[in-house]
Prior knowledge:
With 139 residues, this protein is an alpha+beta fold. Helix content is 27%, strand content 19%. The chain has one domain (3-137). The strands form 3 sheets. A two-stranded antiparallel sheet has the order 1-2.
Amino acid sequence: MSACLMGVNCRYDGDGKTLPQLPQLMERYHIIPVCGEVMGGMTTPRIPSERVGDKVMDRAGRDVTEHFRRGAEEVLHLARLYGAEKALLKERSPSCGSGEIYDGSFSGTKTAGWGVTAELLRGSGIAVYGESRAEELLG
């Protein structure tokens, strides 16, 4: 699960976003908190980043793709160690976004796409859910 959804202050703005269903999810699942951005070596807080094609760029124009790729690999490594079959990740994130991400213009415009970590997990056979689908994991 994205660590920020567990209240860990690891988002780009230094905040967390505790998921209301967290207590129920913790009763049902063994949850591993992960943050692909932090695990890839980025600081908290950090300059916001968005996906632009196969790259991830921060708002200052720096290519931070390698941090995102390295973090995604670390998350996948942990998922494999624990035998994870599902991942609940922060929507629209350039790391964790599932099916919809910001378009790279830093204007708040959304587009179809996947975050780097979500894409890697999904391609490795792990079902990826955005936080708006948390109820599905409880049903």
